[in-house]
Amino acid sequence: METMDQMLLSGWCNVLSSVPPSYVQLPEDRPVGKVFSSSSREIPMVDLGRHDRGDIIKQILKASKEYGFFQVTNHGVSKDLIDETLNILKEFHAMPSKEKVNECFKDPNRNCKIYTSRNNDKPYEILIWKDTLTHPCPPSGEYVEYWPQKPTKYREVVGKYTSELNKLALEILELLGEGLELDNGYFCGALSENPSISVNHYPPCPDPSLTLGVPIHKDPSIITILLQDEEVQQGLQVLKDGQWIGVEPIPHVFVVNIGLLLQIITNGRLVAAEHRVVTNSSRARTSVAYLMYPSSECIIEPAQAFINGSPSATYKPMSFGEFRAKYLLKGYKQIEEELHIN
Ligand SMILES: O=C(O)CCC(=O)C(=O)O
Ligand SMILES: [Fe+2]
User: Could you identify the atom of ligand 1 that is nearest to the CA of residue 228?
Assistant: First the structure.
């Protein structure tokens, strides 16, 4: 049986001249059709540093309704911290596989881990071109004892970064909540108690037309705030009106997307956008997703404010713990269908 360090894609894919059959996507899922650039089909850009709060709210709400995605500038997270974080996380993924695995096996409950689709429980699934380091990062500091300690400044830098991202995520949720006329602080507390980061690493691929870094999906989060590697142009693509839009990285700009949980909470008023990640043949790409997650016991259901009149609730309630387990097992489409009330 293969050990985790032998499975990690980054440890062995650099010697390949072709894509192993287990990683070849079905023809209908391959990323070969037309892709629009984000400069031609712009993903809305919101300047959070402006003084007109009402206008910021309007822009965020419009983008969330139309795209399920927007980008933010003047967000308050310093450029130095962003650069330092990305550098440390790239350094992490550049370490030898054995060392990476050693750094990620401290947590007996496996909340902090590195994984790749080779060790997936679902043998029938097509494998994907990425390795991911993931761990919870709640402001309480819980779990820090299980975070990697290499590179040496990992905990210090990632600790600072995730604490800044927590403030930013709560600020964006407060703006959205205000626009949606929810009670002040609606998303504070259980709904945002258990944020997590996923550090995705996509090695260069011998044939990007056959593979995917991440297949089409909606995030199982309230919102996700993504930092993209500015050195790699091609990666994230968003589906809008049946067309794929490539979201090219802009230095120090975050990409925010609405997750499936917020779609449920807003009773479908906001819709989580489907997106995917394509690979490239020349450079490894790193992305850092800050995912806003509730506590496991928290019940996810449409907010009262959206079911008082018509339409009535469109989704059944479910605890986040159950939701997450089902999402992992069945994928976003099935869980969305299962929760939907016809
Ligand atoms: O790597 C990216 O650009 C996005 C990754 C993603 O969609 C995810 O982690 O949910
Ligand atoms: Fe995603």
Answer: 3
C-alpha–C-alpha distance, residues 62 and 276, integer Å: 22
Closest atom, ligand 1, to C-alpha of 235: 3
Query: Which ranges of 116-231 does DSSP label H, i.e. alpha helix?
Result: 154-179
What is the predicted ipTM? 0.99
Supply the pTM of this predicted model: 0.97
Report residues whose beta carbon is within 6 angstroms of any ligand 1 atom.
198, 200, 214, 219, 226, 228, 235-236, 275, 277, 287, 289
Mutate to test the pocket of ligand 1, among 201, 214, 219, 239 (most ligand atoms within 8 A of CB): 214
Q: How far apart are the first and last CA of the chain?
A: 45
Residue nearest to atom 3 of ligand 1 (CA): 236
Q: Which residues contact 191 (CB under 8 A, 6 or more apart)?
A: 222, 265, 294, 298
pLDDT tens column, 272-327: 999 999 999 999 999 999 999 999 999 999 999 998 766 688 999 999 999 999 99
Residue-wise pLDDT tens digits, 200-231: 999 999 999 999 999 999 999 999 999 999 99
- DSSP-based three-state secondary structure for 114: strand
C-alpha to C-alpha distance for 310 and 181, rounded to whole angstroms: 16
What does the block give as tokens for 156? 């210090």
**Dihedral in degrees, nearest 10, Cα atoms 90, 93, 96, 102:** 120
How many Å apart are CA 118 and CA 100, to the nearest integer? 16
Distances, alpha carbon 333 to alpha carbons 95, 218, 236, 262, in Å: 36, 8, 20, 15
The answer to whether the beta carbons of residues 89 and 288 sit under 8 Å apart is yes
Q: Give the residue, out of 130, 131, 200, with the most ligand 1 atoms within 8 A of its beta carbon, to mutate for a pocket test.
A: 200
In order of start, what are the domains of the chain with their CATH numbers?
Answer: 34-339 (2.60.120.330)
Amino acid at 338: E
